[in-house]
Structure formats: structure tokens, C-alpha cells
Amino acid sequence: MESKNIGKIYGINGPVIYLKGKTGFKMSEMVYVGEERLVGEVISLDKDMTTIQVYEETSGLKPGEQVEATGAAVSVTLAPGILNNIFDGIERPLESIAESGGAFITRGVSVDSLDTEKLWDTHMMVSEGDIVHGGTIIAEVPETHAILHKCMVPPDVEGTVVRAAEDGQYTIKDTLVVVELNDGSRRELSMTQHWPIRMPRPVHHRYSANEPLVTGQRILDTMFPIAKGGTAAIPGGFGTGKTMTQHQIAKWADADIIIYIGCGERGNEMTQVLEEFSELVDPKTGNPLMDRTTLIANTSNMPVAAREASIYTGLTLAEYYRDMGYDVAIMADSTSRWAEALRELSGRLEEMPAEEGFPAYLASRLSAFYERAGMMQTLNGGTGSVSIIGAVSPQGGDFSEPVTQNTKRFVRCFWGLDKSLAYSRHFPAIHWLTSYSEYLPDLAGWYSDHVSPKFVDYRNRMMTILNQESSLMEIVKLIGGDVLPDDQKLILEIAKVIRLGFLQQNAFHKDDTCVSMEKQFKMMDVILYLYKRARKLVAMGMPMSVLKAEGIFEKVIAIKYDVPNDNLTMLDFYKKDIDEFYDRVMEKNG
Amino acid sequence: MAIEYLGLSSINGPLVVLDGVQEAFFDEIVEFVVDGNIKKMGRIVELNEDKAVIQVFEGTENMSLTNTHTRLSGHPMEVAVSPDMLGRTFNGIGIPIDGLGSLGSADKRDVNGLPLNPVRREYPRNYIRTGISAIDGLTTLIRGQKLPIFSGNGLPHDQLAAQIVKQASLGDNSDEQFAVVFGAMGVKHDVADYFRKAFEESGVSDHVCMFLNMANDPVVERLITPKVALTAAEYLAFECNMHILVILTDMTSFAEAMREVSSSRGEIPSRKGYPGYLYSEFATLYERAGIVEGSNGSVTQLPILTMPNDDITHPIPDLTGYITEGQVVLDRNLHGQSVYPPISILPSLSRLMKDGIGKGYTREDHQDLANQLFSAYAKVGEARNLASVIGEDELSPIDKQYLKFGEEFEKRYVGQGPTENRTIMQTLDLGWELLSLLPKEELDRIDTKLIEIYYPKKENEGA
Lengths: 590, 463
Description:
The structure holds 2 protein chains of 2 kinds.
Chain A: E1 6-13, E2 16-20, E3 29-33, E4 38-45, E5 49-54, E6 66-73, E7 75-78, E8 85-87, H1 94-101, E9 120-124, E10 131-132, E11 137-142, E12 148-152, E13 159-164, E14 168-170, E15 177-181, E16 186-189, E17 193-196, E18 205-207, H2 218-223, E19 231-235, H3 242-252, E20 257-263, H4 267-279, E21 293-298, H5 304-323, E22 327-333, H6 335-348, H7 362-370, E23 374-377, E24 383-392, H8 402-410, E25 413-414, H9 419-423, E26 436-437, H10 440-450, H11 455-479, H12 486-503, H13 517-539, H14 544-549, H15 552-557, H16 559-562, H17 570-589
Parallel strand pairs in A: 8-21, 19-24, 19-25, 20-21, 20-22, 22-24
Antiparallel strand pairs in A: 1-2, 1-6, 2-5, 3-4, 3-6, 4-5, 7-17, 9-11, 9-14, 10-13, 11-12, 13-15, 15-16, 18-23, 23-24, 25-26
Helix pairs in contact in A: 5-6, 7-8, 11-12, 11-13, 12-13, 13-17
Chain B: E1 4-6, E2 10-12, E3 15-18, E4 28-34, E5 38-48, E6 51-56, E7 68-76, E8 78-80, E9 89-91, E10 108-110, E11 127-128, H1 133-138, E12 141-142, E13 149-151, H2 157-169, E14 178-187, H3 189-201, E15 208-214, H4 219-239, E16 243-249, H5 251-264, H6 278-286, E17 298-306, H7 315-323, E18 326-330, H8 332-336, E19 343-350, H9 353-356, H10 366-390, H11 397-414, H12 424-435, H13 448-454
Helix pairs in contact in B: 2-3, 4-5, 10-11, 10-12, 11-12
């Protein structure tokens, strides 16, 4: 049984290699290829041909070299040490790779996924005689300042604890618990588990969404919210701010854990995240953001097969923390690169292409990916969630291409980035007319309980104004703005206040970068109050030119900069200002 | 050890197939001798047991199934490197063509390079002053960045690149070692001559290392030229601690060559017939820009590509834009109005700019000012559209002010002389001067405090 299957390389074509004859390999099994022991995965089996994708550069491989099967599917190691770390697409820590191989990533590097020598302070949660099953927490380890790592029984183990270690310091390999399984055999459990990346980790059942993932970004939280356990797509051409939006969410979202997957993107961007997140402080816990973050970096120049795997690696890590009862948010930047990796490999396999050269299974892969998100009851009875926010880089910025279209079918939040907004440096360049969120009705109850019963109504009123603006702009484009009646001019003016003062948000401004729900609501309140009062004036026949001369519109636009986040009572004075403005106009022109 | 194989099994375009090879490895370089005297080089691109598919760099002319001797070199594509490369000219695969003999260096590097580990990258923060307002002010070039120029045929991209080289090299901190690596793929002889002359005139030619693959040189050679150039650049930057500016022109020819070779290999095409791995191939080139921790050098890339039919959504510019850290887009319309450099402001972008400008780098108002100029210029476009429908006379006064601003902005800010070298301060002040054509209330992207400080005061002009 232990004898390992071995095959010989027959052909090589880029990242794909072929083995001739029956090899006895299994689908999705991890293999070591050649003398350099490059990591690979079996992707297709045939009576006389086995196909393997290699996660590293294949130059230098020769036909005839040995391929050795490991007996296990490509999987990740799960144990303390995942957070505050940066991995490549198959969970090899880049820091260790750099220590062993220098600044450039060489091939065939063999490093442990996690530090096996570090001693962790361990607090045991089970004792002899306890009955345990998959998901039972056996020990707790403070992994970082922010996160308590809960070591669990692997999902397939059930039995009685016959020996348990004392509280103390252990490595991730030390045996903590011995369990007598129901069939009488014994199993030693340490902090470490392994899990195949392509298989979702089991849960009890799925809850429906009822709580938003608060991101501190006004256009998201107020206009197009995503639920905890929800899915969202951010499509946009290059330069429209996908990565920037992902960074902002990763920084400020109220998730417990962030898994940031840089899939086929720029190396400098990963460096930036690493630097910035180590310095930035999580407003909730006061710890560095990296304490709750894991980065998966497979930059665009790293091997393409590992790019395909990186998404699943990140997802599995996220599910693991979800099983501990945490809310996890995944940033996948960008799912298009992953789809293109699929296309590239599919082309090498000479599969029949479907739309635009993408393989026909693109849609099913995408749906399987997004369906791994959700708010779940975990095996140990707790509640945890995985939210997925995927960037999409459509070719030529055209949303009708296959990846965007298929993604749209499986996500419930669509944050469409717009080129013309980006060109005029309106950030975040999420367009309010093309974007949508299906979560809004589900979350209405939460908003009503936690922010204000008027919240959803206010939000809808703002959306109405923006929609009115867009139809009025059609007219303005044809005949100019001067000929509009004053009440319509007012709509344009208020819409401008909403666009500049509310939707536009400055990620580099210390107060504006992250805004609490309370401030978001109060800002809406002030803007709509201004609209109400101004409409009254216009109804009495005051021309817009008089209203504009008062400078109140500019003042409301500047709220985002002028009102510090720790002094929201200042917002109440704005209503007084609006009243004064109303009285002044009445006095002068009444 | 060195077995010679006589004859070939098949020849198809730039590809030949050799049967019965022993001990060959993927990506290995092979040497051919045709008719006993013509030497050629090739690269193994596919291996099936003992059958090797080989790309011939110099083209398959004169080769027949019988007259060719093939020898395996035992190593992947390598190029000799040495600090003496500067001032020299090489062909597309790194062989000297300036008649000065070989480099005489035994130091060789694999041209494929290796991916740079993100944890050992240093995030680029130092800006490069190019002396061109539209770039310095709005799409600032950062040391270690990859910033392509998206151009079209007949637009002055070469002139712009030459001006950048000239002015950036004579920047403020000229005590640091600066050099240019120039990689030309499928360029016309005139273009190569233009650059050579430009380098000579600006006095940097002894700091330039040129790799030339001309338009009439073999197509396959083109695939290797940028890799050779970047290998030289990495060597000079990370081992000799120099600041290297790499100019690659024209990336479109590189992509076309890839399509040609891919189709002769019978691969499944994806968009517009380009192979599915176009993105990965581009990425392995562009990602070789950057700064490595612990080295004083840097590789900055300035690739030039001509957009087929001026279409920015064509796969070549599109995929490039997704990899590079911004882009400088040239516009035919502006060129037609004799604006030089005809940089189309709105689609141009520098992603790294935000961390390399502002207080401590350029000036505190730089970012806000740039945002405001972008936003104001976007409004100019709207006003112009409106004017074309209802006529300029019917525009509201504020729209008219925008039109005026747009005109001045294009003429004075974007436009400048081909030898004019502006300082950052001149560029920033010019920006404020132009913004003063607009009323203060329109400046909605700038912190109110900065407006107080920098907005030109009208009363001083004796109103």
C-alpha cells in the first residue's frame, strides 16, 4: 500500500507534461516531477496517457525523468501561523523561500508551509473521557494579538479522548490529544490538519444573509451593501480602481479575518499591501492589520498553474477560520486572471474552446467557487462566514465578455466600475446606475435595528434623485442646462451634492477613508434635509441662482472633510445652518 | 557528450522537428549548422519522448531536411553580461553587431529570468523627473515602475521616449549611475537610427546598451529580444547597482511574432488569434521591472506599443494595461492640433504616483492638484460635447470658462517644446495658474486649506 506510484515523463508542453501508459495515479493527486521535484497535480487520466500540470517553470525538464505520486490530493496545511504571513499559490511561505533562495524565486524549493519549530502557548479545551467529533475545539492558541486560533478535530474523526496534553507550549506537530475512534483504533491529533484545496470543508447548514459586512465605504454600505457570507464582483477596465477598492475593503471591513489573494497581479502591489498592512492599525482591536490578514501572492510572472490553484488555496484557508467561528472576507484580485489561467491550460490540453477561447467549464468552475461563500453553522455549532469579493478584469473594459457575464450569474452584489468616472478621478468609480445589490431587502431589518428605521427609505430617496439626474442629463446634453425649470435644476444640484459629497470618498484622507454607519446616515440626513428646504424655496418661486449664491451646497459637500469621525455632533449644526440659509433667502427675496 | 544529429524530420515556418533526440530538455538551446557553414540557433519549445519541436531564431531559410546538423547546447538561452555592455550594440539575441568583437565575459545569465519574490521587493517611491509637465504633474514616473506609452502609427512616441531619456538622465541626482537599455523588436531602420542619434546628441550614448531586432530580421528572434534586454538590465541594476531605464519598442511586433509562431505550432487561439498565454508572456516581461531589497539599482520600464487602429481595447494594449502600473496614452487628435507631446490626459494614469509625490517628495498639493486638473479636464470634454450640439454661444458662462480652460490647458500644460525641460515646481505652479481660469467654487477636489495657500490671488494683479 505504501509503495509509491512512479511514472516517467513522455512529453512536455509549457506547464503541462504527459506520461505514457498506466501510471496508477489518481485525479487531483499531488506529484513531484523530475529531479528537481517540482510540484504538480494530475489533471486528466486516460488509458494510455496521464496529464499533469506543473506549478513551477518546466524549463530544464527532460523526457524520461521520474514523476512520483504522493498519494494525497493537492492540499493545504492548516495550523497556527497562517495569519500575518504571505504565501505563494500553493501555500509555500514566500519569506522562507526568500531565505533559502534569495530575492528571486528558484524552482523546486522545498519549504514547510508553516513554521514547525515555533512553540505556541496552548490552552487545552478537552480532557480524558470527552467525546469529540469533527469540529470540536481541542485547544486554543493565541495566534496573533487579534486572533485566537482554535484547533479543531478534523471533520472525519469521531470518538473518545483517551489522552490529552496539559496546557503548555507545543509546536504544531506535537500530539495534543489521542482519540479512540468508534472502530476501536486510535488516532493522534496535533494542531495540524490537511485539507484538499478543491473540496469545500463540511458544515452543518447554511444561514440566510442578515447582517452586512460593514466596509466604511459609503457607496458600498449605504447604496450596495454586501452581507456577511455574501458574494460580490468588482468588474472594471484597467485603471478604474479594482485593486484600490479591494484594498479599502481589506483595510476597513468589519470581518475578523482577511484573506487577500493576489492572483496574477502585480508584484509591487503585493509588496505595497504587505508594507501598508504591517503599519496600519485595525481600528477595532488596535493591532496591526496584518495580524488578521493572510496574503496569497501569485503574481503575474509566477507559473500559471499555481495561479489557478491560488484561488482554492485562499478559499480553503478562509473556510478553516470560518469553522472556528470567525467572519472571514476573501479578496480575490483578480478572478479574470484565474479564468485566463484556466484558458491557458485548457489550450495546452487542446480542449475544445467555448466562448472567446475559454473552456466550456468556466461557468461551472465559477459557480462552484462562489458557492463556497456563505454564513454557516459550523460542525461545532458555532457560526462563521466566508464572504467573497472578486475583482473581474474584463477585456477592453467590456462587461459583455464571458467572465463578467458568468460571474454576474453567481454573485448577488455587482459593483460596476466606470471608466468615465475614473477618468474624472471620481473614486471609488463604482457607478450607481449599473451596480446593484440583491442583499438590500435581506439587510433592511439590520439597518432598521442598528442604524435607523429611516435608513433604507433615505437610501432609496437618494437613489431616486440620482436616477432623475441621469434622465435630466440626457436633456442637458441636447439643449444645455440653462433652459431647465428651477425644480429640475435643484435636482441636478442635489445630485451633485450626493455625488461629490457622499459617493465620492477619498481613500487618502484620514477622516474620509473609513466612515461609520452612523456618520453615513447623518450625512444622508443632512443632504436630504437640504433638499427638502431648498425645494420649498424653489416651490415659492426662488430662482436657483439665488440659492446657489449662498454657498450652502459647497458646505454640505465638504462635510466629509470638515466633520471629524470622533465629533459627529458637529453634524447637527448643519441642519441649523440650512435653516439659517432658508431664513436668509426668505428674508432677502421673500 | 555533444552528439550531432544529421537532418530534420520536418520544417514548418519558423519551426523544425527533430526525431531521435537523446537527453534534450525543455527550453534548451540548440545550434544548427546548415550546409556546413551557416550557423543558426534555436530553442526547444515542445518535447515528446525523443521528438523535439524547435524554434529557429534566425529563420528556416536554406534549411532542408538533409543539410542541417543539430547540436544540443546543454543549457537554456543564455546571454553574456558584463558592465562593458554599455555603449555597445547587439542583435536581437545578444550577439554584438557593432564590429567591436565579443564581450569577452564568461559571465552568463539565463534570459528567462526568475520571478522576483514579492517579500524581497522594495516598493517604488522615488519619482523620476522627466521635465514633461503632462507626465511629471499628472502621471508621475516612479523609479522601478513599468509605464508603457500607448501610441499609434505616425504619432511621436519615439520622440517622446528620446526626450524622457535625455531629460531624466540629466536629472537632479545625477551622481547616481544611470544607464539605458534599449530593446527594439521589429523596428524600422529609421527608428533605430533615430534613437541612436538621439542618444548621441544627449550625450548618453556611452551609457546605452542597444539590442536591435529590425523589421526585416527573423520573427522568432523577436520573441527573445526583450528577454535578452531585460536580462542585461537586471544584471546592470541588481548586480552593478545602476538605475536602468529600459525602453522596449514595439511591443506590438513582439505580440505579432508570438501569434505567428503560435499559429504555426497549430495552437488553439484565444482572442484575435493571439495565443492564450499572451498575458503570461507579457507579464514575465513587464514584471521584471522593480527594485530589489538590498540593492541600490532599479529597473524602470518604458515599453512603447502601437495600438492597432488606435484601439485601446485591442488585446495588446488591453493586456498590457492590466499588468503595467499605468499608461501614457498618445492621441491622434491632439497631434493633429500640433500639440506636442500629444498625451491624452484622461486615460493616462500612473498607479505608483500616489506614494511618490506630495509632502517630502514633490509638494503637498501635488495629488489634489492633479486630481483637480483631471476632473476639470473631464468637464471640458462634457462642455465641448454640449457645444457641438447647441453651439458655443448658447453655453452657460461656467461652461464657457471650462472651454477656455481646456484650450489653455492643452496648449500650455500638455503642450511644450521637444527640448523644454520643466521643473516640478514650474509644472505645479502652471497647474494652479490654469486652475485660476476657473472660479474657486469649482475646485471640489482640493482640500480647502490648500486652495487658501496656492490659488493665485487675483487682487495682486491689481484688480
